[in-house]
Amino acid sequence: MKTKETVCALGCDIGNGYGFVSYLTDVKQDPMAMLPAQYELSAGMPTAAYITPPEGSPIEVFSSEKGSAEKLIARKPENGMYAVKTRLRERYVTMKNMKQPVSVGSVYAAIARDLLILANEELANRSLPELYDIVLTFPASFSDDLELLNYMTQSIEKLKINGHSVKVVGRLPEPAAVAIDYLYYMQNVAPESIRLKEDHFTVLVYDLGHGTFDVALVTANDREEAYQVIAKDGIPDVGGKDFDEILYQEICRLLKDKFDYVPANARDRESLRREAVRVKHELTDNHESYISPLIGNDRIEEIVITRSRFEELIQYKLVQTLELTQQMMNMYAGKRKIDAVVLSGGASRMPVVKQMLEKIADGIPVMLYRPSEAVSFGAARYAKGIWKEIRAGEKSGKKQPSSLSVSRNPVQKNKLDGRRSETGNDYRSSNRQLEQFTEYRYGIFQEVQGNLKGIVNFVLNQGVKLPAATEKFCLRSPSSRLQIKVYRSVGKQCKVNQALPDDCVSIRWFQFDVPENQECNVLFTVEEDYNITVQCTLPDGSTLYRSTADVIDSVQKQEENA
């Protein structure tokens, strides 16, 4: 006999500048920040990493004894790595004084490790049990890159902390997490005077972080229903680090023009970069900031940077974010009323961001909301929407091998029982906190007589609630190997039923061992974590499963063994 219980997991936001982790015990209240007070990490844990030469190990981020790795980086800047998520696609980077290239996934995992160590220290402070399951958040612009998402997940799941394995039980886009936290807070937790009274409420989330920009449209339809992600998008290379670099270049220009000074080495350059970060933060609350760097023989000179000059310098970057925001607003103009624009992410604190958004919002309220905590808080609440099956004889709350139940969209005719893939990955149910939908059309490749390129037949539409399963279709292979090639449309507004493979995005080729010249029933599912699961039922009734997560894990292992 099986029963269900919700998953206990931490909400984990591994940011490019700061990381935050939280835990929800009472669904009627806010999640709790899991960063011990004695470390004074109200803005989050700094995520700059120091990679120790020459072996590249240990990777230091934060510890109770040493504090932030930024102190080490100040002494040896060439061994530091900032904004790690912006470098994940590189996989490996060459760094000075290292014997071999450094795995970016290992650096990303080290940040997660230190966040979880802090979280479990705080759990102990609160007399709560240890917890190593997490809901992971990611930039919206990563949604289309399955290999990248699974690389992030699998890098973290290699961790062992205090003898415990780390498990990513769910993942969701960062702006969607912000919306979950904001909407729930405003509907249920906020003071009565500002609490939302209407059931239907749509927010546009503008999330400008340290390394990436995200925008999403999320709707609350009814207090008893899950929130719905209507649209999401992002820019993977615009954020606070760009503003830091722009300020650094301006400081260097002023020092050169006024004092003919150029930083002579990496340590001096790092010192000026830190000044640039300080100036950026200071200009959030002040109209000017002063810099007094050490120049020459202990001579200190002063330069000033005004907020207006800073805003002038970064305007072209901010315009990119506004154009994407305006595009989303225009797309849904007349279709869906936007009730509020919610700012999140550290870089959204800059006054110019709100000012520029108010110009295009056409009277819609624009408000800054928990720029440090909202992503993590939303992820912690999302965790409460994940079901876990408990088999007879298991104790609730005790970690046991289990699979997450699968609940399909009612409009889909095929329902699958809870199951595990050959590599043991769990298949997740539809989340009770947040509903997401297919953004593309998905199809399979089929050979066409007289057409060497073949054709992609789309079998799953846009706008279907995740997890979304296709109808069953029959395939026959002339050999003992059946290859199923899954594609998706390039654009999000695809209207055709067929397309040439060159006009589609190839996701994966899945291979099954099957009887020759016999029909097999096949369907595939787009899961909530964006993985693709393919189910192949053989003539004898047995069923095989393949997943993009399995394939990517296999490829990653081959890379590591090479």
Describe this structure in words.
- The structure is a single chain.
- The protein has 562 residues and is an alpha+beta fold.
- Among the domains are: 2-182 and 378-383, ATPase, nucleotide binding domain (Nucleotidyltransferase, domain 5); 240-312, ATPase, substrate binding domain, subdomain 4 (Actin, Chain A, domain 4), CATH 3.90.640.10; 434-561, Substrate Binding Domain Of DNAk, Chain A, domain 1, CATH 2.60.34.10.
- The chain is 28% helix and 30% strand.
- Strands 2, 3, 4, 5, 13 and 16 form a 6-stranded mixed sheet that branches. A 6-stranded mixed sheet has the order 25-24-17-18-19-27, sandwiched between helices.
- Strand 14 and strand 15 (164-165) form a beta hairpin.
- Helix 3 (146-157) crosses helix 10 and helix 5 (240-259) packs antiparallel against helix 7.
- The longest helix has 25 residues, at 307-331.
- It starts with a strand and ends with a helix.
- Mean pLDDT is 88; it is low at 389-428.
- Residues 414-425 have a biased composition (Basic and acidic residues).
- This is Chaperone protein DnaK.
- Keywords: ATP-binding, Chaperone, Nucleotide-binding, Stress response.
